[in-house]
Amino acid sequence: MIEPGRAATLTRTVTAADLASAYAQAEGERYPDVLSTPALLALIERACADAMRDAVGAAQLSVGVTTHLNHLAPTPLGADVSATATFRGIEGALYWFDVVAADAGGPVGTASHARAIVERAAIEARAAKRRAL
């Protein structure tokens, strides 16, 4: 069990693979050379997962269920960006977190994120069934 207020911070340096421009695939599709929202979300999820690590058993995983994300400012290539996830509490089976992401220039994002604890074998079996469809 984890207590409300528990926090975890993860920091990473923005790489070319993290840029919004890396997602352009179709002709004429263009995005800026700044931290993409998907990369920001991944950092947020990892910070939340880290904060609840002690609540997850050896045969279990935590998985993201829902996120409300505000991407507030651009972070350039090569900059460090951090996400601090603070555990808010449990509602039903969901572990809720408030997250603030920032770079040297200040806040770049805020999020409310919920995770659930699942049995690894069960979720992988469900995915295998979907693959067979």
From TrEMBL:
Keyword Glycoprotein among UniProt keywords: no
Binding site for substrate: G64, R115
UniProt entry keywords in alphabetical sequence: Plasmid
Domain Fluoroacetyl-CoA-specific thioesterase-like: 24-120
Source organism superkingdom: Bacteria
Amino acids binding CoA: G64
InterPro entries (UniProt xref): FlK, FlK-like_dom, HotDog_dom_sf
Residue intervals passing through the bilayer: none
Active site, UniProt feature: T37, E45, H71
Gene3D superfamilies: Hotdog Thioesterase
Membrane keyword on record: no
Pfam families cross-referenced by the UniProt entry: FlK
Protein name: Fluoroacetyl-CoA-specific thioesterase-like domain-containing protein
Organism name: Caballeronia insecticola
